[in-house]
Amino acid sequence: MTTTLNPPPLLEATAPPVTPKRPRRRRNGGRGSVTRTLVSPLSLRSWHGKLIYWTVLVLVVVSFTLAFVFPLYWMVTGALKSPDELAQIPPSFFPKDVDFGVYAEAWNQLQLGVFLKNTALYAGGAWLLTLAVDVSAAYALSKLRPMFGKLILGLMLATLMIPPMVLLLPTYLVAKDVPIFHFDLLNTPWAIWLPAAANGFFIFLLKRFFDSIPRELLEAAEIDGASPLRILWSIVLPVSRPILGVVSILSVVTVWKDFVWPLLVLPETDKMPISVGIASLSAQMPQNVLIAALVIASLPAIAVFFVFQRSIMAGLTAGSLKG
Amino acid sequence: MAVVTARPPVRRSHPGAARRAVGRNLTAYGFLCGALICFAFFSWYPMIREVVLSFQQTNFVDPPRWVGLENFRTVFADPAFRSAWLNTAAFSGLALIVGYAIPFVLAVVLNELRHAKAYLRFVVYLPVMLPPAVGVLLFKWFYDPGAGLFNQVLDVFHLPPLSWLDSTSTALISLVIVSTWMNLGTGTLIYLAALQSIPGDLYESAELDGAGLFRRVWHVTVPQTKLILLVMLLLQVVATMQVFIEPYLLTGGGPENATVTVAYLMYQYAFNFGDFGGGGALGLMLMVVLMVFSAIYLRVSRDNQN
User: Fold this and answer.
1) What crossing angle do the helices spanning B171-195 and B79-112 adopt, rounded to 10°?
2) Domain span at residue A64?
3) Which of A34, A179, B138, B188 is the most buried (most CB within 10 A)?
4) What is the pLDDT of residues A53-94, one digit of tens each?
């Protein structure tokens, strides 16, 4: 469950589009060597145009850095300052005596190790379960085509219309006492994993992709006597790597970023994921320890973003913008 | 021809074919059962339960009791109810003005730049990757009326300090600022991708017809991205009307209910007052409002598929 703005399930979903790269500017600068945009390449070549272009460029780079990097810089250095230095006016731009001890303190005092381990467990489990459940469902709907398949897909897509926040209370009641089985899922990872797997958007993306796999390929395998499971495993999955990557990253990031659902279903401090843990302990911590904890909590997210930048951005525009 | 891939209708004259059709359905439902269970318990049933919940009184000890419209009467009578709806509408409105226009302008500018593009794209999306709780707590520190970053910056320009979260006049806009900072990147990158698919000759012919820069934006860029703009508008409304984490972590709904939102009030009813019925009633009202926007969104995106 998440209340953030999900990557939107926009229009058609086929293969995940790679952001088209504008051809690099060529030296000879002939007409048509650059994809034409709002400003014509001709006016950019004039003395006047160059001046404006570079001014805008510098302005944009500086303001983006100030708006998006500076707060992070302030956070990382803020943690290194002593409580006195933190409260001082005017603030110091560089911390006076750098003491990394505060990070160790945050790690121990806030039991960040436990929180990070929990978060990894929830995100990893949700990822595996989501893939297992959603891939097999999409495969069944796309290739096995059971009776009422269209109706089931429709019901799954209909859930995208209901924002998760409004179902918070009834879903909580389900997690507290699952109907029929009467399991209490509170404080267990299942409270995160099972709702995460019920994702209509992922099923939609996967089904679209599976639909585009040529029928002949599967028929040939079938004539050779391969079972549906075998076909899924040895033919469908290997060719679906791009979409599996997108779904994997989206599902991990969603669980990682979620706040309100784990806040409700994991009330025990030892079971909390990191963002809930930090928020619930934030009141009792000295300011610099809390900031150090925020830095530690954002590091994994930033590291993941560094590594998977391309797929994350592809996921963002997955299936959109073809029209 | 294998039966598995044969399209219906299955001919009834062959008993073997019918049996194989049953087998095919059994296999398919075997693959589907995991998803069906997850959806049934965590999507479909909660939808029904939400409706039922809002007409019941649930205290977890006695069996739930039907109370008709009493839950709705309770929440209507709450003075925070009006504030919650007004604040939610104001938050969405402000977030739209700031969070909808700015990404579009940024995307248009970014699309013209030929240098530092990868850096700018990376940086603008960075806050989106942070867990929202981290971003919100970070801004809580920035908003600190004493040594907070924002008041220090104001001081550099010799401006008087603001009380940010502590004053009824600035608290809500402070929440909008955090929320915009955290979500700006998504819109910017989606618009950027849309801009890249606009054919260049449209701009060229507009220019030949004597259209200046702003007229080219208005008559070429905007119409060409109209659909994405509309879709993002609806998504933004649905996303911002669910705002919870900002009031929960920053203000607790205060000062004087200035930042109570519907989602936050719903949470309070259930988990602070122990009144799941009242919370359910609020949830149902929010659901009805948001479903209207969702329905328009689905309509728009489906119409465009054809």
Assistant:
1) 40
2) 41-103
3) B138
4) 898 999 999 999 999 999 999 998 888 888 778 777 777 778
